From TrEMBL:
It comes from Sphingomonas gellani. GO terms for biological process: metabolite repair; nicotinamide nucleotide metabolic process. Residues 208-459 form the YjeF C-terminal domain. This is Bifunctional NAD(P)H-hydrate repair enzyme. (6S)-NADPHX binds at residues 61-65, 122-128, 151, 241, 294, 342, 405. It holds the Pfam family YjeF_N. Catalyzes the epimerization of the S- and R-forms of NAD(P)HX, a damaged form of NAD(P)H that is a result of enzymatic or heat-dependent hydration. This is a prerequisite for the S-specific NAD(P)H-hydrate dehydratase to allow the repair of both epimers of NAD(P)HX. Bifunctional enzyme that catalyzes the epimerization of the S- and R-forms of NAD(P)HX and the dehydration of the S-form of NAD(P)HX at the expense of ADP, which is converted to AMP. This allows the repair of both epimers of NAD(P)HX, a damaged form of NAD(P)H that is a result of enzymatic or heat-dependent hydration. One of its GO terms (molecular function) is kinase activity. Binds 1 potassium ion per subunit. Transmembrane segments: none annotated. Keywords: ATP-binding, Isomerase, Kinase, Lyase, Metal-binding, Multifunctional enzyme, NAD, NADP, Nucleotide-binding, Potassium, Transferase. In the N-terminal section; belongs to the NnrE/AIBP family. PANTHER family: ATP-DEPENDENT (S)-NAD(P)H-HYDRATE DEHYDRATASE, ATP-DEPENDENT (S)-NAD(P)H-HYDRATE DEHYDRATASE FAMILY MEMBER.
């Protein structure tokens, strides 16, 4: 069992392809199922505290994993029972069922146990759970002290994170071989509890990964304010938002932050204030220009936006600026661009569309030629070359005004330090998430901007 950080995220089809490759190299579905079932049993034995176990088995291979796990638990001397939603169908699942020498109860009749193992449906779920399954599943999860899902909680769509009908929350989910989008994307991710990847002896790779602690160099003897990273934040109609972004950039470790569009000195005095002159963005030392927080959506703000787009400096575009643009206009810019839309801004810029958040973010990155940070209770970062990074598990207290402005500043700081755009976006998201985790509850965006320094100190 290992934590998710930095691990590949694969779809059901990618997982099947990896499984197929393992089979071509001499393994078999039955051998994989045997491996998975035993590994699940071992974890359940370890975390179950010796309590009795009820394994719920479906008709597919997820159910097959369940029968193998039940047999292994029994062999280990654990009191275990099995209940099934319907008989096994595939060859491997039928063989796994045959390896279980105990009774098989119906879901309706099964009494709860202290540990519940949900092996009803995995990546093969293709519709909402029937009531005859959903109701007993809920009753048995509620009656258990500990509930463990095999691969994904039954009822969630592994590739999209959609929840098909009411699904009870599990305490632990054992992701088989690799994380699936549902382990990170909402609303499914909240139902997974603690997710751990279980090695199943299948090699998986993917161009999508779970966010991980970034590599972000600390200042050294050669550092000075300009080579630490210089960030220019363009101020608009609502000065507070740009201030938050600028403060965040400073506390994320930028060496020099300038607020363009203001000239009167005021605290914090470390923040340099200058007017947005025609040549303000020409300074080659500027490593990132941040525009959008509090910019205003009126026609009058098109001018500074045009100036930023025309500059050859790396650009972070957020908030109102996203409302004044089209994907084509961004694509035409060339150069490095990072967009940080929340769901409303995303829909306005790229259209509502269907598909998973991961698919939509990737499509948006391709269309705009920019790295797209699609924010929300889960955040998907996508690059035009197809790579993607998923961040789940956010502190819900982030849902307060101004936290997005803070994120923009943090990304600006990372970008200005010379990181490639995808890495910079991920570093900013990680720092923001870590600062929020440390702050706990009911913090405000001003505090979040300052708290970035504590997260930065960990790197
Ligand atoms: N890919 C891999 O490398 C491995 C996968 N294994 C397991 O196989 C699982 C996938 O197995 P399957 O493809 O058989 O899929 P599932 O076991 O998730 O279920 C598929 C079956 O359930 C039916 N079904 C789908 N939704 C339903 C619903 N709402 N109500 C009633 N029936 C429904 C389908 O028609 C199909 O017959 C994985 O999640 C994992 O647990 C392991 O056994 C072995 C290794
Ligand atoms: N449960 C949640 N709901 C909304 N936003 C969340 C949640 N959890 C984390 N966040 C994060 O909080 C930030 C909100 O940004 P945004 O909506 O742009 O706010 P603002 O425009 O007020 O700064 C984003 O980084 C988002 O990913
Ligand atoms: K399951």
């Amino acid at each position: 069992m290992s934590p998710l950080d930095g691990r590949p995220v694969v779809t059901a089809a990618q997982m099947r392809a990896a499984e197929q490759l393992a089979i071509e190299r001499g393994s078999s579905v039955a051998a994989l199922m045997d491996h998975v079932g035993r590994a699940v049993a071992e974890v359940v034995r370890r975390i179950g505290g010796g309590g009795d176990v009820l394994v719920l088995c479906g008709s597919g291979n997820n159910g097959g994993d369940g029968y193998v796990a039940a047999a292994a638990l029994k062999a280990a001397g654990i009191a275990v029972r099995v209940a099934a939603s319907s008989p096994p169908r595939g060859e491997a699942a039928i063989a796994a069922r045959a390896g279980w020498d105990g009774a098989v109860e119906t879901l309706a009749d099964a009494a709860p146990a202290s540990v519940l193992v949900d092996a009803l449906f995995g990546t093969g779920l293709n519709r909402a759970l029937d009531d005859a399954v959903a109701a007993p599943l809920r009753r048995l999860v509620e009656g258990a002290r500990l509930s463990v899902a095999v691969d994904v909680p039954s009822g969630v769509q592994a590739d999209t994170g959609e929840v098909l009908g009411p699904v009870p929350a599990m305490a632990v989910t054992l992701a088989l071989g690799a994380a699936k989008p549902a382990h990170l994307l909402q609303p499914a991710a909240r139902l997974c509890g603690t997710v751990r990847v279980l090695d199943i002896g299948v090699t998986v790779d993917s161009d999508a990964r779970v966010i991980a602690r970034p590599t972000w160099t600390r200042p050294g003897p050669d550092s000075h304010k300009f080579n630490r990273g210089m960030v220019a934040v363009v101020r608009g109609r609502m000065a507070g938002a740009a201030h938050l972004a600028a403060t965040a950039a400073m506390h994320a470790g930028a060496g020099y932050v300038v607020l363009l569009g203001a000239s009167m000195p005021e605290a914090p005095y470390a923040l340099v204030r200058k007017p947005l002159t025609d040549d303000a963005l020409d300074d080659p030392r500027i490593g990132a220009v941040v525009i959008g927080p509090g910019l205003g959506r009126d026609e009058g703000m098109r001018e500074p936006l045009d100036q930023a787009l025309a500059s050859d400096r790396p650009l972070v575009i957020d908030g109102d600026a996203l409302r004044l643009l089209t994907p084509e206009r961004i694509a035409a810019r060339g150069g490095t661009t990072i967009l940080t839309p929340h769901a409303g801004e995303f829909d306005a810029l790229f259209g509502a569309g269907d598909g998973s958040k991961l698919d939509r973010a990737r499509d948006a990155a391709t269309r705009s030629g920019a790295v797209v940070v699609f924010k929300g209770p889960d955040t998907v970062i996508a690059a035009p070359d197809g790579r993607a990074i998923l961040a789940g598990d956010a502190n819900d207290w982030l849902s307060t005004a101004g936290t997005g402005d803070v994120l923009t500043g943090a990304i600006g700081a990372a970008l200005s330090s010379g990181m490639p755009a995808l890495d910079a976006a991920a570093a900013g998201v990680w720092l923001h998430g870590e600062a929020a985790r440390r702050l706990g509850a009911a913090f405000i965006a001003d505090e979040l901007a300052v708290a970035l320094k504590h997260a930065r100190g960990m790197l």
